[in-house]
Amino acid sequence: MVNPNIFRAYDIRGIYPEELNEEAAYLIGRAFVKFFKKPRLKIVVGRDNRLSSPALFKALTKGIIDQGADVINISLSTTPMHYFTVAHFKFDGGVMITASHNPPQYNGFKFVREKAIPISEKTGLKEIKKLTTRPGNIVKKDYNPRTGAPDSREALASRPPTRQGKIIHKEVLKKYIAFNLKDFNLKKIKLLKIVIDTANGVPGIVASEIFKKTNCQIYHLFAKLDGSFPNHLPSPHEEKNLKSLKKEVLRKKADLGIAFDGDGDRVIFVDEKGKMIPGDLITALLASLILKENPGEKVLCDVRSSNIVRDVVKEMGGIPVTGRIGHSFIKERMRRENIIFQGELNGHYYLRTYYFCEAPFFVIFKILEEISRNRKSISELVKPFQKYSHSGEINFKVKNKKKVFKTLEDKFRGGEILKIDGLRIDFPNWWFNVRPSHTEPLLRLVVEGRTKKLMEQKIKEIKSIIEN
What is the pTM of this model? Predict the structure, then answer.
């Protein structure tokens, strides 16, 4: 029986093999093809380097081809490279096998349709879940790991397709790198010392090749692929996982440090002093550079991010738009309103010219270009944006989330209320946002004030309300 709890808001995710196993992967593969209701599909499948990814790949692709679709196998891939393949080569959809930044025992699937448009709970994941888990849609018995397929008594309730799909191997790394470098004159990027940390994850295969195209001196930490992530978890937005990177930046007297997460769709920066740079300051810097070349464009602002992002967008003649958190919501809004750029607090950066998908290397090379052009350090580039005191995300385990929201709204009713993602209330000198996590049983709080003292005072006040 497939565990229904592996189906999340944006993807499928669970512990292997207790929650997500080969039987589930096979049935999900068949259900994904059936969901499209189209013949002759070509589905791109990529995978990260987790220890369970090869087994899940084998089962998932068997399900896809048994249901009559062709698999475009791009093998080891980052998530942005997978999205690029689907959109750039005009395939029908794709499945990326990854659990992103989660610990090594986890794995999962991210789904997209044509143009790399995400399939979330609201746009098809519920239907895929129904096809996978309900009797009458798929009749299940035991998965046979020896043959790589379910027991012969097991089949989709509907008549199986007459056409068997096939697996087609496709090499995309070189074309993906060329796509990322098309906007940059690498000769204008000076000789910089850069430390990169790919946490033994699949981003290492892209980073090691793309930086060869530059004159920069690269120090690559944890480049060897190891899906057990022996050095630290591939979760760079948690500062504890940046210790080695910070230390090496200082030891090598590097110009900056760059850390990737497990599937390469987010990137975190460390300055030349060994300090982590908050994602919203990078967003403000990138927004200023992009709007300088594209005045009047809309920029989508993370509801958690510092007000400095909105300030910069307005100052540069752009139009700030505040939106929900989560890549499916972000990409849908960007497409609908033709928004040029968005940056999230946790290191995701989305660009219109990258098929409205994550563009970590565009952000990296834009920053390298600006350091070279201005002959300023990364800390000097972001210093003008350090106007407010921002708490970052503070997590709470809360049983009755609705009661917390109601209590906070009643307590701070005098402010400007926004409910697009949890609850955000703005006052002239400070604001806060509290929202439920879509991936963990947590409530997340962000507070920002004009001064550190005010921010700390408000954190203490809100914290007491939440905990009581």
Answer: 0.93
